[in-house]
Amino acid sequence: MAEKIRVVVIGAKGRMGRETVQAILKDEELELVGAVDRTLDGVSVSDVLGVDAGSVQFSNDVEKTLVETKPDVMVDFTTPAVMKGNIDKAIQFGVRPVVGTTGMTPEEIAAWDQACKERGIGGVIAPNFAIGALLMMRFAAEAARFLPHVEIIEMHHDQKLDAPSGTAIKTLELISQAREQMGQGHPNEHESIAGARGGEIEGMRVHSVRLPGYVAHQQVIFGGLGQTLTIRHDSINRESFMPGVVLSCKEVMKYEGMVYGLENLLF
């Protein structure tokens, strides 16, 4: 039997971290060897999360955990403020980062890509791990060839820190590859309230909603002569992201360099 892939989860006490820990424990090819949370140290993962994680304990020190547990993969669901340092540490110790936190720049992704290649390891940064969301983005890029006028409304829980979401940015990037840059709306339009027309990327508008009750939702709205087309995806709960996380933990072992977007592992 092949050896299991050893995984450390950073932010393991958070909402996404808890789901990730459970998904790893359920998968026969993965092994949870470490869990990090800045508020916990030396306490049982099983006791805190109510799962059977064996002898694995929480640590509040990322670097110490990477050195002591010698994982193959580090899954990070933290915040933009700490995520970047965690990726640097993982690559430094030859651990493959799988990152669901968003908020990095293209230049940072390129630098991590080069660093991973120099260490001979892979990495995955995924704005969205839900398979349905990836299909939404793929369908949107196809639709933009025929209906180039498009706006995005993305809706998330009110604890999300970045706006627009990484999924919205990735969707706009894919659409921009399928259509020419163009202006939208009336050339003389004006906002009586600043920001009413949303943010703009290459002429496309994006609107961010942050309210309690939401998890992660996005609709891509296309307009044409006498018609509109809406492509919408809804993550009803965080379990929707877990098949993509588990897939990434396995597929990242086959790559060198940083893969940006789970669609590159699927399609």
From TrEMBL:
Any one GO CC term of the record: cytosol
Residues involved in NAD(+) binding: G11, A12, K13, G14, R15, M16, D37, G100, T101, T102, A126, P127, N128, F129
Keywords per UniProt: Amino-acid biosynthesis, Cytoplasm, Diaminopimelate biosynthesis, Lysine biosynthesis, NAD, NADP, Oxidoreductase
Catalytic activity: (S)-2,3,4,5-tetrahydrodipicolinate + NADP(+) + H2O = (2S,4S)-4-hydroxy-2,3,4,5-tetrahydrodipicolinate + NADPH + H(+); (S)-2,3,4,5-tetrahydrodipicolinate + NAD(+) + H2O = (2S,4S)-4-hydroxy-2,3,4,5-tetrahydrodipicolinate + NADH + H(+)
An annotated Gene Ontology molecular function: 4-hydroxy-tetrahydrodipicolinate reductase
Pfam family, one: DapB_N
Localization: Cytoplasm
Residues binding NADP(+), per UniProt: R38
Main location: cytoplasm
UniProt keyword NAD, yes or no: yes
Documented EC number(s): 1.17.1.8
Signal peptide: none
CDD domains the record matches: DHDPR_N
Domain Dihydrodipicolinate reductase C-terminal: 132-266
Gene Ontology BP, a term: lysine biosynthetic process via diaminopimelate
PANTHER family, A to Z: 4-HYDROXY-TETRAHYDRODIPICOLINATE REDUCTASE 1, CHLOROPLASTIC-RELATED (PTHR20836:SF0), DIHYDRODIPICOLINATE REDUCTASE (PTHR20836)
Family statement drawn from the similarity comment of this UniProt entry: Belongs to the DapB family.
Protein name as it appears in the record: 4-hydroxy-tetrahydrodipicolinate reductase
